[in-house]
Amino acid sequence: MSDPLVDRRYLIPFRSPLLPQIFTDVLVVGGGVAGLRAALAASEHGDVILLAKAPLEVSSTAWAQGGIAAAVDPDDTPEAHADDTVQAGSGLNDTDAVRLLTAEAAPEIERLIEWGMRLDADAAGEVELGREGGHRRRRILHTDGDATGRELTRTLSAQAKRSPAIRVFEQCFALDLLSSQRGDGRVLGAITHHPRFGLQLIWAKATILASGGLGQVFRETTNPRVATGDGVAMAWRAGASVADLEFVQFHPTVLYVAGATRALISEAVRGEGAWLVDREGRRFMQDAHPMGELAPRDVVSRTIAQTLRRTADSNVWLDLRPIGAARFAARFPGLDRLVRSFGLDPAIDRVPVQPAAHYSVGGARTDLDGRCDLPGLFACGEAAASGVHGANRLASNSLLEGLVFGARAGHAAAAQPEVTPERIIAEVATSPRAELDLADVRSSLRSAMWHNAGVLRAGNRLEDLLDMLDFWSRYSLDKIFDDPEGWETQNQIAAATLVARAARWRCETRGTHAREDFPERRAEFACRASWQRDREAPATFGSVAAEESA
Prior knowledge:
There is one protein chain. By secondary structure, the protein is of the alpha/beta class. The protein folds into three domains: 7-247 and 361-414, FAD/NAD(P)-binding domain (3-Layer(bba) Sandwich); 250-355, Flavocytochrome C3, Chain A, domain 1 (Alpha-Beta Complex), CATH 3.90.700; 431-528, Up-down Bundle (Methane Monooxygenase Hydroxylase, Chain G, domain 1), CATH 1.20.58. Helix content is 33%, strand content 17%. The chain contains 16 helices and 20 strands. It has helices spanning 4-7, 33-42, 60-63, 78-88, 95-103, 105-114, 148-162, 230-238, 267-271, 297-311, 325-331, 333-341, 398-414, 438-452, 459-476, 484-505, and strands at residues 14-15, 21-29, 48-52, 68-69, 140-141, 166-170, 173-179, 187-194, 198-209, 242-243, 248-255, 275-277, 316-319, 351-360, 363-365, 377-379, 384-385, 425-426, 528-531, 539-541. The strands form five sheets. Strands 2, 3, 6, 7, 8, 9 and 16 form a seven-stranded mixed beta sheet that branches. Helix 8 (230-238) packs across helix 16, helix 14 (438-452) runs antiparallel to helix 15 (459-476) and helix 15 (459-476) packs antiparallel against helix 16. The protein starts with a helix and ends in a 9-residue tail after the last strand.
């Protein structure tokens, strides 16, 4: 049987001479921290178009409650930060990428301050540093306790809009990458859709994918509606290698109240002293890891899932009383308002929580400057597999990764040679198969992914999941849609299938990837894996870092 993921190259049929054409030096797809930082770096060298399929304030970055990790305290060092990053990464980190991340953290923070970003400080004006899971020192910078992402988005977007070299196209959807027909796979830009201007071709000498993650392929997620895996799906269709997709991080503490959105309860709350307890009030993390509630996120999420299986409850509880109601309200004003809006008093009540999909470690495989293995294509942030996180992202390293590797990708992309527009033709036959309701497909897909590729996985459930995804692929990927809802659904199917295939292949438990049928690490999987169109088996690469200590 043919593979629907491989059979289809472009999402729509078109002939380029009939579409409006725009030219720029660098095209950035994505308006979160990585995309904004890449655009700012690239704009130092030429013209940039920044595409965001929603307003800039609607992104995973803008939603981020957690802070930015950086060794800025005199008693801290980039090396100590790197050690914690590798420890959390279960041995699969690219150590060169980790060293770059932690060494360039402080300069990026200084630059943000110069651009006007506010950071929490004490009465003497000294920046306050918090602690989160996996960090052995206080090195997390916040704004208003739990509004770091919103302030970071404000700072970067204001800077981008002030730049005469950057054009920001909000609510503009990138359907697919334009690829050269000359045999080298060079990426020449993208096909886009704007609700006012319709389909357009944007030609660029370099294209940067910074479109965020794929959290919306799971029923329970902290991600905004826009996180539909567009970047990894586009990279895959174009022929780029994608890697590390089995490693999806589940945030341990998401508000679980009937009828409520799955609002994230920042890890910094546990950093300030909150406890995780079962229905009997017992602190179950104390027996699971020496760091207790501050263990790496994969350990906490897995322990919660196992506790829920044991107790048959739908959630565990976060006990805020060790922090104190007054301290909680002062430190986390947004969260205090949130829990009180559901009738919960931090001085008395425990807050019901459970894990939810939060961060995709994998994406388009890149080098240290964000280059993918197709000429002209770059990726950064959550859309990329830089290797910096290994098998599990250390808390508050994601905003930092977007800053550091977004800047590197932007500078490198601007140095690409000019491109010559080509005649791009895609002919897609009308599908003879029956129609499926897109809303039903998305709902069923997200539920199937949550139950079969969630916190706890097993080979038989992954096989069943792939059968379901194959069915949805055959009846959805062969269709021609003319609106973002259809294109997003196709991207969700592609991204979910790639996650499930990678999870089935990795027959071990490591980092965020927990296989109940293979509960231990296995030496033959002490490597990273990349996948590519027209190649059934993955290519393995990378050396294990700190295997015994992780």
